[in-house]
Amino acid sequence: MKALRVTLVLFWLIISGNACLSQGQPAYTDYPEFNSLLDSFNLEGSILIYDSENEIYYSNNFQWAREGHLPASTFKIPNSIIALETGVIENDSSILRWNGEKRALKVWEKDLKFYEAFRVSCVPCYQEIAGKIGYERMKSWLARLDYPGMNFEESEISKFWLEGDSRISQMQQVDFLRRFYFSELPVTSRTESIVKSIMRVDKTDRYTLSGKTGWGIRDGKNNAWYVGFLETKDNVWFFATNVVPKEGFDMDNFTQARIEITKTALKRMGLM
Fold this sequence. Notes:
Blueprint: H1 2-15, E1 27-30, H2 33-40, E2 43-51, E3 56-59, H3 62-65, H4 76-86, E4 95-96, E5 112-113, H5 114-119, H6 123-133, H7 135-145, H8 170-181, H9 189-199, E6 200-203, E7 207-218, E8 221-232, E9 236-245, H10 254-268
Parallel strand pairs: 1-3
Antiparallel strand pairs: 2-3, 2-9, 4-5, 6-7, 7-8, 8-9
């Protein structure tokens, strides 16, 4: 039933003229239903979903999806890849020691295994990792991975994804994740397997959901990410959500809202 619903949606979009398919080129399809979904969460922004089988992008706002933002903690994906490839991190169980200093979140105030640090998005853990990778290796590996928009000096090695001039768009996030998933990056299969494992957040008999959140603050303005991919029985769907709160939004809900709005969008498309 889910597959039938997706097929009918695609058929309607094509015959309505909203999807212009050309051989070898992806299609860009407006999906205005996402606007009402954003409104229901009292958020503004863009939900971008990519159908890798049919090469179709869906979004309520492609202009927003092409604009750059600080990657914030979504950068933990390439940071993890580089850490494993350079040997800074040995495996998913490598221990990141807490130095006893107070941290922003209590869950960070303990020794964490690498996969735990990723899943609780331990900022100081990954700042330490970036410092060990170092400026030259980080720059070199970002170029090799073709991870775009990271603009920083050596003094910013432990914070350039959180503040400064680095920017990445939703379209670029999806492109990077697609290349990572389909083994198009110059990394070992071991690294790929480990990072896919630590990204996995939900697995059922119908789908597997993998993702990473991010929350950036620039000039006092909050910006939230949720990026990743959904594996179904016959396809892989990539997503990148980027949202900001509207006036009156309860910021206590911001952490979960970026995830819930993405999952709701995937459900409305009949994918979950």
